[in-house]
Design a protein that fits this description.
This protein has a 10-stranded mixed sheet with strand order 8-7-6-5-9-2-10-11-3-12, with helices on both faces. A 6-stranded antiparallel sheet has the order 20-31-22-27-28-29, with no helix packed on it. The protein is of the alpha+beta class. 23% of the residues lie in helices and 20% in strands. It has 17 helices and 31 strands. The N and C termini lie far apart (59 Å). The chain folds into 3 domains: 71 residues, no CATH class; 437 residues, 3-Layer(aba) Sandwich (Alkaline Phosphatase, subunit A), CATH 3.40.720; 167 residues, Sandwich (Jelly Rolls), CATH 2.60.120.200.
Length: 805
């Protein structure tokens, strides 16, 4: 980071005095201004106090003092144009890749069955870290990764969708914790983010923001991706900078990961074409392999039959490869299957068929993702910049996901609404798994198998199955031990300080006027050249949804709370949780609980957890899940509103910012000026997996309700509306106040009843994840196949009014 040295300070002072004296001696100036006035004019442009400041402590770097000469005219003056900020001479490019929901033992690079040749290739040129940790959940890991601070320290103790009003849980990244992107951008880097963001409060993700916590306001020059926690990989609601990207119906074979790679490659090539002497920072965060598990069929079919042996055997085989390849210590013990997960041999042949196919789909998804990351790496290599690029490839933002439960899922939106799927439904859709027709997830046991050799999975921050992820670091010839393994204990908060040290920068004390919280991570650079050096990351707490652990100098105390990842309600209180003790310096997989043998050490670590938890704003512990999705727990743009009027086509409104028509009566009234054969969407929400749409088809007012892709109800007028001005209205009268109750729907044209129908069941909790609320067109998947996106209304849509009754 650029600094003003003592010698430059002296030189500035001497040249300033000399300039003032010269100026004073000129008769023309002496007649017009006094000596004191001359001093005032000079110092109004650059203050000695500012010049003497240590600029390296504050970002953005201030404009340097003027060092030219000012006369009466340009002929006796000397210009000194401000120069742009430059990164240190040997600062590397940085490529930071993070995948989603990948277990430690799933990639081939870390002993898994699933082929990840590009991660393998990178590992052969760099280092594999086998004791690298995340937070056990998506948003918290990303917040910690980008800021270098613990997740509660930056108010992201849980995912943004279930934020609450406690300091560690608001999901509002503080200005006192600038991102690594902001630090790099302010020091001469070009910065861009691609893919999953998931660090903007859910109520701030509509087209009106506020945009303070969107990527382009947190240090990234450019953003292309999605704001939420998961996405339909075939039909993603994409944002470019702060604008939602309009989708078209002709996107054949579209997949978001390919699209992200295309945009990342184009951005890097553009940046290097225009400013090749300026380093870049590319943050490439795929939505893969988070559910839904979506992949092209040819990738899925590569794994046909490769999981027929079942999760128990897959886990054992993975463990054997991990030992053989030196990925884990040779004395590591494979932890046993939890009682809550069934043995593969206990399943029926039909169940085994279904679950094996679920694993094949996931495997194809992960391999396809690795290929897209490989394309980005290849593009950097083709530019001749790979050896000058510090690459971090983090294989997962937490352990593998067990959120698919003990059957897996065809339509995850059903699970969100408490509706179970039948075995017959799975069999009927088996060939469609991974396609646009499903919103699928695999059986929880595959996640457990994929976290070999550790206990548990995503969400379970108390055990390494939830927090241990594979990390590969490569940096051209700066990494000498190519293909080496590093076993120092590290955490995702260590990446930001590693980048700062590698780039030759300083950690700023002030950024954009905000005094900065201390960086809590520890740089990995010390470990690059010596595998034997002891870890410098000595202590680390873990907490997620009540699951707790503390690491300290080779020991871990852990308390798993009483709710499994596929359950909504905890079965125990915090006081009932059992604490375990592990000597992980000698027990890599946490296989032997020493709590009974060493109660004094356990008590010491429990006390340390309390201290760390208070320090980092972990308290109060909160194990609620389903309840925290309710919007009353956080601000909402619709607070206090029961009437909504839209005066123009509006798209991309997330569910939290849309009128909440669930579990109540409501009215939709559209004022239109119709042409002949008018058609198109008036208003819609959700899509293929749950939702509703109010539209004109062949001029006929139509309302379709899609109950979780199981029941579709269509109410349609028999005659088209007249040419000219009309009001089209849909009234829904709900049956009492029951959750998810049915009701009667009626369509009116200019207050005349033209159609009526019964909607037997309604969605109780969520319409979806990626499909949004739109006026005047449909930007997501459609609730019915009778029209295709965007199905824009062809007449004049003067306004749409929605009233909650």
């Amino acid at each position: 980071m650029t600094k003003i040295t003592n010698s430059s300070k002296r030189g500035f002072w001497e040249s300033s005095l000399k300039f003032i004296v010269e100026w004073e001696t000129k008769k023309a100036i002496a007649k017009q201004i006094s000596f004191l006035t001359a001093i005032a004019l000079v110092f109004s442009s650059f203050s000695p106090l500012a010049a003497f400041a240590d600029y390296g402590d504050s970002l953005p770097l201030p404009q340097p003092p003027f060092k030219g000469k000012i006369g009466i005219t340009y002929k006796e003056s000397q210009p000194d144009f401000p120069q742009p900020i430059k990164a240190p001479a040997k600062a590397p490019n940085v490529l930071l890749v993070i995948l989603d929901d990948v277990g430690f033992g799933q990639t081939s690079t870390f002993g898994g069955l699933i082929e990840t040749p590009n991660l393998d290739r990178l590992a052969s040129k760099g280092l594999r870290y086998n004791q690298f940790h995340t937070t056990a959940l998506c948003s918290p890991t990303r917040a910690a990764l980008l800021t270098g601070r613990n997740h509660h320290s930056v108010n992201t103790g849980v995912v943004t969708e279930i934020a609450t009003g406690y300091p560690g849980y608001t999901a509002i990244l503080p200005r006192s914790a600038a991102t690594i992107a902001e630090v790099l951008r302010s020091n001469g880097y070009n910065t861009a983010a691609f893919g999953k963001w998931h660090n903007t409060p859910a109520n701030e993700t509509s087209a009106v923001g506020p945009f303070d916590r969107w990527p382009t306001h947190l240090g990234f020059d450019y953003f292309y991706g999605f704001l939420g926690g998961e996405a339909d990989q075939w039909n993603t609601s994409v944002v470019e900078n702060t604008k939602f990207v309009e989708k078209s119906s002709d996107r054949v074979d579209y997949h978001i990961t390919n699209d992200l790679a295309d945009h990342a490659i184009n951005w890097i090539r553009t940046q290097q074409s225009i400013a090749p002497n300026k380093p870049f920072f590319t943050y490439f965060a795929t939505g893969a392999t988070h559910a839904p598990h979506h992949a092209p069929k040819e990738w899925i079919d590569k794994y046909k039959g490769k999981f027929d042996q079942g999760w128990d055997k897959v886990r054992e085989e993975t463990f054997a490869r991990q030992i053989t390849n030196g990925i884990i210590p040779s004395d590591t013990k494979l932890t046993p299957r939890p009682a809550e997960i069934p043995a593969w041999d206990s399943l029926s042949p039909t169940e085994q068929k279904i679950y094996a196919r679920q694993a094949e789909v996931f495997a194809g998804f992960l391999s396809h993702t690795d290929a897209q990351v490989g394309r980005v790496i290849d593009a950097i290599a083709q530019l001749g910049e790979l050896d000058n690029t510090l690459v971090f490839f983090i294989a997962g933002d937490n352990g593998a996901s067990a959120e698919g439960g003990l059957t897996g899922e065809l339509n995850q939106i059903k699970t969100f609404n408490g509706v179970k799927e039948t075995q017959a439904e799975f069999l009927a859709a088996l060939d469609d798994l991974g396609s646009p027709k499903t919103f699928n997830h695999y059986h929880a046991a595959w996640a457990w198998a994929g976290d070999s050799p550790f206990q548990w999975t995503k969400q379970i921050a108390s055990h390494f199955g939830g927090t241990r992820n594979g990390l590969v670091v490569a940096w051209g010839d700066r990494i000498k031990d190519k293909g080496g393994i590093r076993s120092q204990f590290h955490h995702v908060i260590d990446i930001a300080p590693t980048i700062i040290e590698a780039a030759g920068l300083e950690t700023p004390e002030v950024v954009n006027g905000a005094k900065q919280q201390p960086i809590e991570g520890t740089s990995l650079v010390y470990s690059f050249d010596d595998p034997a050096l002891p870890s410098r990351h000595k202590t680390q707490y873990f907490e997620m949804l009540g699951n707790r652990a503390i690491y300290d100098n080779g020991w871990v105390a852990a308390a798993r709370h009483g709710r499994l990842p596929w359950e909504f309600v905890s079965k125990t209180s915090f006081d009932e949780d059992k604490w375990e003790l592990y000597d992980v310096a000698n027990d890599f997989s946490e296989s032997k609980d020493l709590a009974q043998e060493n109660p004094a050490k356990l008590a010491e670590l429990q006390s340390l957890f309390q201290k760390e938890a208070k320090k980092h704003k972990v308290f109060p512990l909160d194990d609620r899940l389903y309840q925290r999705f309710e919007t009353e727990h956080r601000p909402n743009i619709n607070d206090g509103r029961s009437s909504f009027t839209y005066y123009t086509p509006v798209v991309g409104i997330p569910e939290i910012s849309a009128p909440n028509i669930k579990n109540r009566s409501f009215r939709i009234a559209a004022d239109v000026v119709a042409k002949a054969d008018a058609e198109g969407v008036l208003a819609t929400q959700g899509g293929r997996f749950a939702g509703w749409s109010f539209f004109l088809k062949d001029g006929k007012p139509t309302f379709v309700y899609n109950f979780l892709n199981s029941d579709h109800t269509t109410i349609q007028a028999s005659e088209p509306i007249a040419i000219g001005k009309s009001q089209i209205r849909f009234d829904f009268n709900a049956d009492g106040g029951a959750i998810g109750a049915g009701g009667t729907g009626k369509i009116f044209i200019n207050d005349k009843l033209v159609a009526e129908g019964r909607i037997a069941k309604t969605v109780a909790a969520r319409f979806g994840i990626d499909d949004t609320f739109d006026i005047g067109q449909d930007t997501g998947t459609t609730v019915i196949d009778s029209y295709q996106i965007p199905f824009k209304f062809t007449g004049n849509l003067e306004q749409v009014k929605i009233d909650l009754l």
